[in-house]
Specification:
The chain is an alpha/beta fold and about 500 residues long. Helix content is about 30%, strand content about 15%. The radius of gyration is 25 Å and the shape is globular.
């Protein structure tokens, strides 16, 4: 409970108790007053008609390169968020690469509108983003305290401008992926860390912001954006497996990767796949197992950080009026189609975990809406009652979160990847309940999830799918330039594939 609420409750309780002593001759009135006194003592008195409803807090925990199925190995997050909130079982990162995904999260826009198409190059990195077009300003201007700690957009450095909407700004600037040797902006006092584990530092800073903000009369927004389980990159440019915190080393030794059970793992024939998969050699299972083990061990500290964050909110009396969001900037392939990584339009790279807990959300619920990261800024603004200050491309998930099981939703979603050269675009396409289709103008793919859920057969040149392909291309052509409501249309049914010719 906030400080002002505690003070008001105490004062009113004294008045109510005194009033009770003077009305004993009127039994009914006394009963009513006693009930009101009990409610006040318990902090549950209904607000008056003239009292403004309390605005909720927002806490957003983001991981980096986390697969959807990695969530199965985070028991604290499962218990405190999944079991106590709503899990979106078909959530994707529609531009599955770090910087474009994060740009979507801070603008509520696709890359054609926010300008960030890749991690680097003229169309990529923090330099491609207009720092004034950053959604934290929506909350700041509505009276929220705001705090960011962790990894922002790729390429953000110690001399870059601080986005204006953050009350506290503690972003990684150097050694972003090193885990133990890194620098942060320190909210105006740059700080170098040597030997500290990055997840623990982000955890501590996020908890400190919550404690400080909870002592005020204002609601708050706190973002804790972690580095795990992204692979490690040293300041010298070396690349290695993500290091775990000391207590987590060896936790998942001999753990069988989930990708080993996917029929697409080390796919035998990739000759029909798009170019980014077509020439890959088979992966070495022992290397995939080592990477999977390291990733899961690195996520254990994030799991504990979620636990301490929830505990801090509880200790400060803020948990019951705080929405907690947990997700990842993109998924990650571990040997499916012979590929390890992201920045491809396959299911493993697109799918991300997405869980939301908070007031009005029924515990242990799920939704299969085809949601994306682009929807989160619209959702958080809606839950907080703040107004976006520019056109956003996502749809608020608040109706579904708050119990509307019949929320109308788009039936076709834009998915895309960029490149560093040329116009900055690579493959761009659309995703529906049944199909994923994309092309870079020359190299195309079409998967039919109804008969091929593992995306092992590219049917883009199959004559039976000509009508489907043409209809999806029509949608793609419009959606690659979409903005606002045009990105969220209900197009209606697609044609069925032609039947197999009879023998």
């Amino acid at each position: 409970m906030r400080a002002w609420a505690r003070s008001v409750a105490a004062a009113l309780l004294v008045v109510l108790v005194a009033t009770l002593a003077t009305v004993t001759a009127f039994e009914d009135d006394a009963d009513d007053a006693a009930t009101a006194a009990v409610r006040m003592a318990q902090g549950t008195q209904a607000p008056s008609a003239t009292e403004e409803p309390e605005r909720p807090n927002i806490v957003f925990v983001l991981t980096d390169d986390m697969r959807d199925d990695d969530l199965d190995h985070m028991p604290i997050t499962q218990s405190l968020l999944v079991d106590q909130g709503m899990e979106f079982t078909d959530a994707i990162s529609p531009h599955p690469l770090c910087c474009p995904a994060r740009a979507q999260l801070v603008t509520g826009q696709y890359a054609q509108n926010n300008g960030v198409q890749h991690n680097r190059g003229v169309h990529g990195g923090f330099q491609a983003l207009d720092p004034t077009q950053e959604a934290s300003t929506w909350f700041r201007d509505a009276g929220y305290h705001t705090s960011f700690t962790g990894k922002f957009l790729n390429g953000y450095g110690p001399h870059d401008v601080r986005p204006a909407g953050w009350t506290r700004w503690d972003a990684l600037t150097r050694g972003v992926y090193d885990y133990v040797n890194f620098s942060m902006t320190g909210d105006g006092t740059p700080t170098r860390y040597e030997g500290d584990y990055i997840t623990s530092v982000i955890e501590d800073h996020a908890n400190r912001a919550i404690r400080d903000f909870a002592a005020t009369d204002d609601p708050f927004v706190v973002y804790a954006w972690h580095v795990a389980p992204h692979y490690r990159i040293t300041p010298e440019g070396g690349r290695s497996l993500p290091p775990a915190a000391p207590q987590d080393r060896g936790t998942f030794r001999h753990q069988r990767p989930a990708s080993f059970d996917d029929p697409a793992f080390n796919e035998v024939d990739v000759s029909d796949q798009p170019r980014y998969l077509r020439n890959a050699d088979p992966v070495l299972p022992e290397e995939v197992e080592a990477e999977d083990t390291a990733r899961l061990e690195a996520l254990q500290s994030v799991d504990r950080a979620v636990g301490s964050l929830v505990r801090t909110l509880q200790d400060e009396g803020e948990l019951d009026h705080t929405y907690i969001v947990f997700s990842s900037d993109n998924g990650y392939s571990l040997g499916e189609h012979r590929y390890v990584g992201k920045d491809v339009l396959t299911d493993e790279a697109l799918q991300v975990p997405l869980v939301v807990r908070g007031p009005g959300i029924a515990p242990g619920t799920t939704s299969d809406l085809p949601v994306t990261l682009v929807d989160l800024p619209a959702t958080l603004a809606d839950l907080a009652g703040v107004r976006p200050q520019w056109t956003i491309d996502g749809t608020s998930l608040a109706p579904t979160l708050l119990g509307d099981g019949s929320q109308e939703f788009r039936d076709t979603t834009l998915v895309q990847t960029g490149r560093t050269l040329g116009d900055g675009w690579s493959h761009r396409g659309v995703r529906t309940e049944r199909y994923v289709y994309g092309t870079d103008g020359h190299d195309a793919f079409l998967y039919d999830h109804l008969v091929d859920p593992d995306e092992m057969t590219n049917v883009v040149d199959d004559p039976r799918y000509a009508g489907v392909r043409d209809a999806l291309e029509q949608r793609r052509t419009q959606m690659v330039a979409c903005a606002g409501t045009a990105c969220n249309q209900i197009w209606g049914p697609l044609p069925d594939p032609m039947p197999e010719p009879s023998s």
